[in-house]
Amino acid sequence: xxxxxxxxxxxxxxxxxxxxxxxxxxxxxxxxKNLLLAMNQNLSLVxxxxxxxxxxxxxxxxxxxxxxxxxxxLDALIVKLGADIAKIGTAAASGSSIALATKAPKLxxxxxxxxxxxxxxxxxxxxxxxxxxxxxxxxxxDEQIAFIxxxxxxxxxxxxEPYLEEDVVKGNPVSWLHNLDAFWLQFNARWNVQNRTENxxxxxxxxxxTKGVQDYYKDFQTYxxxxxxxxxxxxxxxxxxxxxxxxxxxxxxxxxHADASVTLxxxxxxxxxxxxxxxxxxxxHKGSSSSSNQSGSKSSTSTSAAAQxxxxxxxxxxxxxYAIVDGKAKKGVLQKVGQNAKGxxxxxxKWNDGTTMDVTFKSLKKxxxxxxxxxxxxPKASSSSSLRNSGPSPMDLDSASSKGKKPIICxxxxxxxxxxxxxxxxxxxxxxxxxxxxxxxxxxxEH
Length: 447
Hints:
Blueprint: H1 25-94, H2 98-101, H3 121-135, H4 141-150, H5 155-169, H6 180-191, H7 196-206, H8 213-224, H9 231-241, H10 244-252, H11 264-284, H12 286-308, E1 320-325, E2 328-339, E3 345-351, E4 365-366, H13 385-388, H14 394-400, H15 432-442
Antiparallel strand pairs: 1-2, 1-4, 2-3
């Protein structure tokens, strides 16, 4: 095994001289040989030194890499230190302690879950998990499970009691009470709605917009989550459930919901904007529409009031009144005001036909065309019936030709509300028309 040369030999090729005769050739060849040996020695020396340098370079590169890693870690520590210093400075400026400056926001404690409504199980899990992540980020698994158990009540807590007794009291560890994922698996198996997916699928198929688009979109997202429908299918189902007014507005705006560029999110955003603008329009024109409605209702009210004879007259004792019974007017005289068994004031009416009937003040109306107080039977057919049915008599015309609109007075009996041809025959009043007519002409009254 050859040893590595350690001495550099000077070799100068320019020192060789070209032989001029044949005798100088052996000496010249020996010089060439010596020169080649020197160059070979020098080359071996260079190769050995290069190999040593290569090893040193590898070692240096590894050291450099370690230094780079240390510098990176140092940079991270410097950044963290700067953030901590900034927090300390902020806390000092506001007069707060470092603990207060780094304290997480205080959240409301999640509502307890009692197991009475399984639809609330998912909401309970989300609320508790979020509360633990924000309020107690460094808590252990056992601490988290203990907090979750403290939020259970009623049947939900009774479900855990046998396992807690086995784990805590008897000292026989229950594995899923010390593993958060396993605990939630047991919780979901017991309290989640088993056919939740099919229930949501059925609800999604029948979901329609009955309130605002915001409420409809919220319910649509709740029911469609995890059902496996693609975006175009969800978009079309969302459009089908929109109200007629929203669809009509989208059509007026030439909005094609089935376009390939339209997604469920863009369609929902467009429907929300339309709904908001419709609400703004309704609010802006609420005053004008209400005033027009009021004017229209005023006219209709006045018409209906006129048709019903409103306002109702005030009744007094002794006045002629009537009530509508079976579509016919039942007439009488208001005698007095009494009280019923409940102590409520009721009218006491003497009816012209002699019958008795309980009525209320609301059903009574003032009779401006009263008939005779005495009820009489219907007139019998006679030879004069043709005359009575032929129209009012001359005396009736005299009584009806007075100034203004006065009540009709019978020329036969002096009663109001009917003509002489409608008055029943009465022998005792046979001569009354003449004296009554004469008294009217003379301006005197009959006693």
